[in-house]
Structure formats: C-alpha cells, structure tokens
Amino acid sequence: MFFNPNLTIFFSTSFIQMNQCFTFSKEEEQSRERLGELVLGFLNRELQPSCLLACLETVRILSRDKDCLSPLVSHSAMSTLARYAGIAVPGTSLSECSQQVEGQMDSEGGEGGEGGEGGEGGEAAEVSPSENADQEVISEALKSICNILLHNETGQAVAADLQLIRGVAERLKQSHDPTWNHEVRFFDLRLTFLLTALRVDTRAQLAQELHGIRLLGNQLDATLGICWPDTLETTRAGFEGCPPEEIPPLSREQTELAMESLKILFNITFDTSKRKVDEEEAAEYRHLGAILRHCLMSQADGEERTEEFHSHTVNLLGNLPLPCLDVLLMPKVQQGSIEYMGVNMDAVNMLLEFMEKRLDRGHKLKETLLPALNQLTESARIHRETRKFLRSKVLPPLRDVMTRPEVGDTLRNKLVRLMTHIDTDVKDCAAEFLFVLCKESVSRFIKYTGYGNAAGLLAARGLLRGGRDSGVYSEDEDSETEEYREARNQINPITGVVEEEQPNPMEGMTEEQKEIEAMKLVHMFDKLSRNNLIQPMQLGMDGKMREVTPDDMVNLVKNPLFQPEEPHNSESEDES
C-alpha cells in the first residue's frame, strides 16, 4: 500500500477544522475509517513535528466516533499511540492479527514502519519521555487512548494486553518532577481512572502489584503541596501555623488533578472495607486517611468546585477500613478548632455540614447523601466522642413536645422525614444514623422520632417489643429536660408529641354495642384478607412481625381476646 503524504496532510488539516465536532454522520463512516488507516500508517514514519501533531489531532477527533474505531483498536494502532504517549512497555506481546499488520507495514519499506510496531521488537518501539519530549504530542496521544477506552471494549482488552497501566504508573511515580505540564499529568490520571474503572484485572494489578495506594497517595501529596508537621498530621506547605481561613483555596488545576487521583483510589479500594487488613496495610490506609482529612478541610476555587472535591473525598473515605477512621480525630486542638471532649472535631463537623447541604438539596439522595450519612454512622458507632458530638448537634435535649418529630427545619426534623422516604436505602440509612446516635436504645429512639417513624427499623431488627440492640455503648448523662419530664405521660408514643384530647368515639355505647362494632371490624379484616387485598400481621414473641393465618382469624372471630401461639421453628436458637 502506498501512502501519499500530501494527500494525508490535506485530509488531516481539513479534519482538524472539526476540532469541536462530537457527532458524526453515518454516510461518511467508510471515509473516516479509511482516513484513520491512512493517518495511523503515516504515524509509523519519520515525521516533521507539525505533521506529527496534525496526525495525532486527527486521530483524537476520529476516536470520538464510537462506530468507526476499528482501525484504532488493533494492537499495532494502540501500540503506536502508546509509544507517542510515552507509556509503551517493552516486551508486550502482539496478537497474530497485529503481526499481520506489521508485515504489511514492513512491505512498504522504510525504517519508520518497523519502528512503529511492538511485536518482537518491543524494546525498539518504546519511546521514553526523554526521547519524546514534546508534551503536546504526549497529550494528544493520551487523549486518543482515553477516547478509545471510553467507547470500545476491544480497545480496553488491547490496553490491558499492552500493559499500559505499567507505563502510566511509571510516569505517575514522577509526581514531584516539575517537568510535566498540567495536561500531561491530568490525562495520565484520566487514563488510569478509565483503565481501573473498566477492567477488574487492571484495578487489582494497580492496587497490589504496582502499590497503587502509595502511588496515588504520593500524587495527592505532591498535587496539594502537603507537608507533615507530625505523624498523620498535615498542613499546606508554606502555611504552617496559619488558621484555616487564612489559607488560600486550591487552584483549579490542583483540584482537577486531586479529584482524578481520588477517583482512581476509589476504584482500587472499592472492597477494602469488606475485608480485614494487616498492620502494614492499616498503616498505609491511615496515611491515606490523613490526606483525605486534609482534602476535606481544604477549599477549592468556588463553592461548586469545593463541593465536588469534597464529594470525591467522602466517597473514598467510605472505602477505608473502619478502624482507620480514627485519623479524623487525631490532629491537635488549635486556635479556631472545634473541640469536644478534648478532641478536634473539625473533620467530623465538616462531614456533618456537607451531609446537611446534600440533604437540603434533595436531588438524587441515594447517590449524593448516603456516602456522607454512612460515614457519619460508622464513625459514631466506633468512636464515643464522635457519637456524643453528633448527638449534641442532631439530637439535642428535647424541649418542644408539641411539634411532631418530622415537622420543622432542624437537622433532626429533616432526618426523621427521610425515615419514611420512598427509597428504601435512603430510609434505612437515615433511621440507622439516628438509631446509632440513640445508642441503639428503642425507648430513646422512639422518644426522638415517634413510634410510627421508628417502626420500620424496629420491625427489621426484631425490636418492636422494645429493648436495645447488640451494640456496645458508654453510659450517657440524663438528657431529659424539664419540659419533657412534665409532658412525658401526655405524649402519644406513635406521633412523639402531646396531642389535643380527642372525643371518645365509643362514648355512650353499651358493652354489647362495643362488642358488635369490634366483631364488624374483625369480619371486615377477614374479608379483605381472604380476597388478598391486605395481609394482616401480628407481633411475635421475637419482636418481629409474622403473618396472621386463617386459623388465627377464625379464633379471633370466636374469641377477640385470643393470643395466637408462636409457630414452632426447629431452626430457631435455644431460648435459654
């Protein structure tokens, strides 16, 4: 095949005029595929810098079209792009298909064709950063690879086969090297994010073999300019001893790089909280936790960007092993810090404020609210000081006994409203948080939420008969106010408030009339149950709800005071 350089340059230059084009017509698919083949072949020759850049820009634009990627996803094409991106790995094997393409290129003559392929001569094909110092070229090649991975599964498999994660990890190790500009750093991280998001094997490889947590932790350290005045204590370099309000916000570039690093770390630590970690891993996660605390206390350029930055931080915090969350409380109390029981609560208070902002917004609560709410719940469960601090903010001593728990604008009111939310996950998470703040005490939980709102969680836990769940908590001081003590006997436990006395609907009725009305009600329930319109339930001795059987209904009709016996369960635990 003969390549006409002038023709290719003409097509490339014309195509670059479509730099902002992201949609493509079906009619020209074959032309775009042909152009991709021509330009990739041209990239395997010795090129002038301007021509090289034009070709790579053309490939970048072509890679946006997910229907015309076939010329770009072969081993040879991906290897060529990796070479220009400076992330080619020596010795990566090529498939038979790519070797055939290599043979075609060799038949054209010229050393450029040989140099553009991997295969046996992988080492010769590699171009290290020092040999390919044009960072604009590197950036264009990285963008093309990112587009290919985003749109094409074959490209993802080829990238894994070519071990691109190794090549990009090598450059990420140079996080403190000022040589690389922002765009190269950003697309290195974006490529790593895509590889770890789309390939489980690559995710595990980065986490374990390439020590991804340490690697990305160092990346965050360098990006944010962190210095360590003490073990697990951080501050911004050049601002040691300054109050937080005097530290300038992070630049847009710093925030962009930091968020990409946080997203990669989320991918590779996704299952960490579900497994045990050894001492070495725990130390690594505590170090990462200290960096995340620093992120949480940092401000970005603008409120919207700050919230996005904190959102990625909170998501990653949720992946850390629970015993490592103590790093949130480790910094010493300083002037301007929020202190509670001698502990620095700045990070916990920031999490609480972040959670309330998401709650007030009310948009996609499952995705936006639950990470922060889960984080606060688990922190409160394992740290006494955190629980007491959060309880003082969310469930202060109860004084208003005339307003329903779900009515009002306090954080308690907002969370109680969530306990009847249509989304089960949101409802359960809100109830769990308040239950933990009540030390899993049923009576205290009902006191602050009302039995009606609390019934869902209590039924799921088998606590409808009262008591306390299995959590271990310290004793708290008596939190009852004078107002609550005086009104306690008048409070309706279902609604959680003092209600106006209602007229008795049975007033003036004889006992016989009352019995007739009761039997009417029983017959109506029986009819609805037999027609499968409702399913009557009853409270079992284990505190959980169970179905009322037809025999139970017959007995209730004959004797309204009948108490159904518990069905025998051979698998239940010994009562003793």
UniProtKB/TrEMBL annotation:
One of its GO terms (molecular function) is G-protein alpha-subunit binding. Transmembrane segments: none annotated. Residues 110-122 have a biased composition (Gly residues). One of its GO terms (biological process) is G protein-coupled receptor signaling pathway. It comes from the Eukaryota. Pfam families: Ric8 (PF10165). Its main location: cytoplasm. GO terms for cellular component: cell cortex; plasma membrane. It is found in: Cytoplasm, Cell cortex. Keywords: Chaperone, Cytoplasm, Guanine-nucleotide releasing factor. Belongs to the synembryn family. Interacts with some GDP-bound G alpha proteins. Does not interact with G-alpha proteins when they are in complex with subunits beta and gamma. Chaperone that specifically binds and folds nascent G alpha proteins prior to G protein heterotrimer formation. Also acts as a guanine nucleotide exchange factor (GEF) for G alpha proteins by stimulating exchange of bound GDP for free GTP. This is Synembryn.
